[in-house]
Amino acid sequence: MMRQYELVERVQRYKPDVNEALLNKAYVYAMQKHGHQKRASGDPYFSHPLEVAAILTEMHLDEATIAVALLHDTIEDTTATRAEIDELFGPEIGALVEGLTKLKKLDLVSSKAEQAENLRKLLLAISEDVRVLLVKLADRLHNMRTLDHVPVHKRLRIAEETMEIYAPLAGRMGMQDMREELEELAFRYINPEAYHAVTERLSDLTERNRGVISEIEAALARLFEKYQINAVVKSRQKKPWSVFRKMEAKALSFEQLSDIFGFRVIVDTVEDCYRALGAIHTTWSMVPGRFKDYISTPKQNDYRSIHTTIVGPSRQRVELQIRTHEMDRIAEYGVAAHSLYKDFGPNANGPGNQISRDTNAYAWLRRTIEALSEGDNPEDFLENTKLELFHDQVFCFTPKGRLIALPRGATPIDFAYAVHTEVGDSCVGAKINGRIMPLMTELKNGDEVEIIRSKAQVPPAAWESVVVTGKARSAIRRATRNAIRKQYSGLGARILERAFERAGKTFSKDLLKPVLPRLARKDVEDVLAAVGRGELSSQDVIHAVFPDYKDERVTQGPKRREEGWFNLRNAAGMLFQIPGRAGRRNRKEKGRESSGGENGALPIRGVSGDLPVRFAPEGAVPGDRIVGILTPGQGITIYPIQSPSLTAFDDQPERWIDVRWDIDENMKERFPARLSVTAINEPGSLAAIAQVIATNDANIHTLSMARTAPDFTEMIFDLEVWDLKHLNRLISQLKEASCVSDVRRVNG
Ligand code: MN
Q: Which reaction does it catalyse (predicted)?
């Protein structure tokens, strides 16, 4: 077991001004508290916190973190209390020890919902102080190193938790050594056969290639001497787990793996990295597609290095990583390296935690925590977090060169939301590398993405199933909810204004506040939206506000309704009489003149002589793309190409006939089109609609209506219009009528 002075010396080596008293006090306190407790191995319990502290000294952490490591199991396993630790070591250390005590109880391989909740707690604890994670990972590493002593039935569970949560988390925080060791240890317990098979073959291979490895090392050393680059060359063998994972992922056999051996070239400066790369590439040929420059584009966990693969001196592939000493340390220790590095800097007065807040790894943590507050359900959250933990990243750029890192499978929509929620909400299109591409496109590394925006945009709900980031998903959900609600509440306000006016009252939103309980609604917007959706009738609202008000529709309703009908019939009748009849007569005359055949009545080309031709019930007008459907014994029916009725004929291609309009500019003719108009249900609205139709020079052929909700009526108009332009103009005029809430072409 490490002695007290040995621990102090270790820290002193990298931190000369170490607070010795703090370390000594923590050492003695923890040793006394754990007393004669034993670990499963039979060792004194205190050896465990001491080993955890030792692991953290390898990462050069400050004495507060080392003290926390020594104390991390005291509250949970001994008579120590938070208050006592606060008193002896200060509240900062007390809070960290308590944070770790809470994490001890988390079981991260339990049921999905619980697991999600626990992961949340873990991430929240880490976000408060990243040193909690550093101690937790060191704790887990030591437990994994001594897992043999744990009862068999517990081993697998702990190993799985390590592989699923802690190893990726270490990787995400940039602590590659920690990640690798956790993975190797967990692999041994999760899949012992595979572990042993891979390990054996790897050591065979090392044995056989001993000569080759030193040959390459020597060749690289000579090369750097020639180019006068000061470099340290280290050979490294891939670890069993990463070999196994690669074999699985790429379905390769052991022999097919080309990069089991790698070399690390460590130099003094960034410039030397590129000089070394140049020297290597001019001496040996590089393997295409294997070059990656993580120096100019660091990974999201702050990893920086140049990767390349060359055909080496004995014609074998050699994988190389080129980096500076500083990059090497960050690659090994991640966030921990940052905290150390900055601790010695000019502003080194705070704890490691505060300092590492500006690293990418920490930024990832913050974003993940943010997603927690977006209110996703815990299982979604777990999925998202796991996805973001495990999958590789794609790195994309804004046109201004800002780097946006996204999980693999991300789309331009994810990209837009990653830039800013507002950018996502207003996204209508994307240019990828200068070309307009579908928003569903999967982004690739290095893509430059320009988001095309429109203020009028509301993100379609369907996007939710397309995006892969939690941020985009919850933002889309929120935006669609808001947009729908806004539409309905706007409509509801209009309905109420009119209903109040009709009742001889003046509507104001303030009137609704006192009656919210009576209407069983939580706020004014909610009332408006309910009226807009037709869930709550305007009359009920009036009654709630003015309990004494007599609903005229109850007393005089039937009569008034009849009046409404009568008015409409009048209006419609007039319309039919004047231009309508004339128009239809016109058509018949023209038809007779032009061909005399029965189908000659319709100006359609592509139809042979004597087949009767008619329009589908929903009509078709010049400007529509049309198609004819042949019904044997009956003739040809003309449909607009977008008509849903056509799906009925999908499997009968022989009945589809290519037809085109054959319009003579001088022969003015009208054509049938069917519209559905939804109007606010009040006297006079139908007359108003008929008026709009009349002033726009269209004919009403037939009209049917159905009361669809207390405050709305849907009317189906079969109209006669000149052409598509005419019809569209009419539709937009109808939409502007204040009593109209919706107009759409039926089947067209
Ligand atoms: Mn522990």
A: GTP + ATP = guanosine 3'-diphosphate 5'-triphosphate + AMP
